[in-house]
């Protein structure tokens, strides 16, 4: 079908802002063969991607191709170009409809509409075609099919211009029409038209800027070649070459003029109006793209005429738009070669950028600080001291990203520039290292900020950018212990206190690996690299401070503030280092210093710090426990003996206690009370002494208030320790008294219903396991007392099933089934390479493996492997040990020493194999499974004449193929029930297998793969926003400067092993067929 496109174009241009530039650039060029398209597809007459079109509609529209996104954009564009070369009217109609449909319009533009309607009439007609019930359109729609639409749409426009840049865009037809359409749509009252066309126009402009840049480079190269050739002597000069170069330069200049006109049309027709649009998303698109233009082609766009739009828009009401302004500027300031062109802009808008560091939107504040850091890198003189100070205090912000960005700014400003004289001492350590002055600077800044209680916040803010500096504990120790070198000013007492506090904060950050309280969202799971760094840091901290801490305590033993902070260090030690590093003598020194601190101080904070230090060191898991426990006992013996002597003298009748006696009693009582809080001092019977003291105070009424307070506290702690002891003994008594009742209850329950009893036991273990995970986290230690207690309970439960395995065969099978399903129920959020969250439960479940018969173990093992992937079977890390140990417990007692993991997973057929490895078979038919099962060497299902009542399933379990399963897809059936059936019915069922089972199995074997379903990522539509007021700006013409593989996955429906199959050999053949 043909179309008189010249008439339409003239009509469109009449009402289009492109008239001024399109009419002045017409040169009637012919369209030569497109460069790089010689191998294009032929036979595309009137077609797009091989599909016919009529009246703007075809079986597969260009919009659908881009929406689906399966075809490569390059191929789609090449097809369109081939169609355009054959019949440009039809191809251009495809492109027009493409933009209309990308806006969400249900209608299409026909040839008659082009011929008889003006541009505004066409847009009005398309507006009527919109679905008024929904405000969604492709750019705002959610769902997997729209997730990549915007990126595909933008990519299509860029590739289209790139492929047409050598000829088609200069034919004064395609670009004229497209720019006219997009300009008209961008002025529509319909948001979908305005948003989509603005995005298309901005991406079109970006592609044209890239074309203009390439033209500029080619013109520079051509000019250089021309000058080189012209400077040759007349004899060597090639006139033909000069003429060709002149012609080429002229053609390049003409092309550049055309590109300038196109860009001017887009800039004036779209950008100037839409960067002030009422919709924030549209404004953001404009600002984002102008930033790209200035960065890509700085010679043409990086000037105040364009920068002013970004500067003005930094006052936008919406954080999304302000954020785009900052990110656009970051791309410019990052390139130091462009700094000279940004000087005027910086001086004009610097104050606005500084004020944005306090933006109500945290993301905007973070990017504003990062932009100021780039400005600081370009020139330190630009930012005044007041500007910098407004950023400095943000290191104490509770919002960590803001604080980290401010910490990087602080580090760049104060610490990044080193004195050239320090370059030669970079290898020195301790007080003479280059970090010494930087650490002092940190201390000075901390003191000047007058926010001393937030030292942890300062350290956390600088942790990412100044890790090496903050971990230079050797230098910090040297600054505190060593005498200052000649000419160096010593630290004041206040500066030493600040340095000790900062040092403590850095040690805490390194040992705990999480932000301070109030700044983080909770503890996160550390990576393997972070865990290694944490262990290395703790080792280094222990090695350094095991030696230095006694010296520091000796130097500052009378300073309560310093001692309190220093005494917190041992809780971050790796106490094993004291033994492995042969540091016992330093431990003795530490214990002596702590004892001296206790004797010198009566301040509650200091005494509690000493008590906590003893508590941290008295860890029974380490070999130093006995040594520390003896030192603690000697100290408490002395304190209690002294207190009893003083108390006896203090309470003597007839004598008035003087102030000195009262002080001695109070100071000793304070020390004892501080220790009684964290340590059980019941063996010293302090309750009797403190009760006597309180009784005397009640009777006489002249007891000093502080003595009464501390006596009551000490009495309170004594009572609490006694209550804890009584509670523990009561628990043991309860177990002894009521244990027999519980055992009898479990026995009766088992007699009533063995299966439900087993389900109850496994459910109770699962609940205990879940409670443990909520308390200890997913990365708990399997050697912990809690986990060991659950395993011990499982062992006791296992003993209750007795020795008759035939009687409990069905219940044990159900127990293992539920346990396996629970272990693989929840996948690890870190990905498939990590074990499922509940995998450690298999360690508990292995306690019941001994209750399975040998042939039942093999069946359970097959069921376990249905939940395993091939990669799981190959894992040997510690986190996979529960799976390995459970599999081993199921393989124990078989005829073979080993079982083939690969064969079991790939075929799911043979339950055992000989010691000689057989070739691995990927898939087998159902008859092969039966033959393999029947020919099993141990004759696992041999006796079909047993008369034991065997339960069978109400309905046949789902059949599965032998393809690897994804553990995420397996879900247990809640309706899974077992009924005992008389032997006669069992025999009848065995002799007459259900034909439906074989039919279903055959069908699944023929097609056992399910389609891959992508995740759905939801996106919300932005609300209408108000337009910025008071922005009436001038515009300018653009004047270019003078030249110088798809992932495969098989997923199966859930399937279950039938407990009936492990109860009676008589049904084993049929069940194996099902499996």
TrEMBL record:
Name the keywords, alphabetized: Cell cycle, Cell division, Chromosome, Chromosome partition, Coiled coil, Nucleus, Signal
Q: Where is this region: Disordered?
A: 24-54
Q: Where in or outside the cell is it found?
A: Nucleus; Chromosome; Chromosome, Centromere
Q: Look up keyword Cell cycle and say if it applies.
A: yes
Q: Any keyword RNA-binding? A: no
All copies of domain SCD, residue ranges? 271-356
Q: Which InterPro entries match?
A: ARM-type_fold (IPR016024), Cohesin_Scc3/SA (IPR039662), HEAT_SCC3-SA (IPR056396), SCD (IPR020839), STAG (IPR013721)
- Please list which residues make up the signal peptide: 1-22
A GO biological process held by the record: cell division
The Swiss-Prot or TrEMBL record annotates one GO molecular function as: chromatin binding
- Tell me the superkingdom of the source: Eukaryota
Q: Which residues form a coiled coil?
A: 212-265
Q: What GO cellular component entries does it have? A: chromatin; chromosome, centromeric region; cohesin complex; nucleus
Q: What does this protein do?
A: Component of cohesin complex, a complex required for the cohesion of sister chromatids after DNA replication. The cohesin complex apparently forms a large proteinaceous ring within which sister chromatids can be trapped. At anaphase, the complex is cleaved and dissociates from chromatin, allowing sister chromatids to segregate.
Q: What family is this protein classified in?
A: Belongs to the SCC3 family.
Q: Summarize subunit and interaction data from the UniProt record for this chain.
A: Part of the cohesin complex which is composed of a heterodimer between a SMC1 protein (SMC1A or SMC1B) and SMC3, which are attached via their hinge domain, and RAD21 which link them at their heads, and one STAG protein.
The protein's name: Cohesin subunit SA
Q: Record the organism.
A: Scleropages formosus
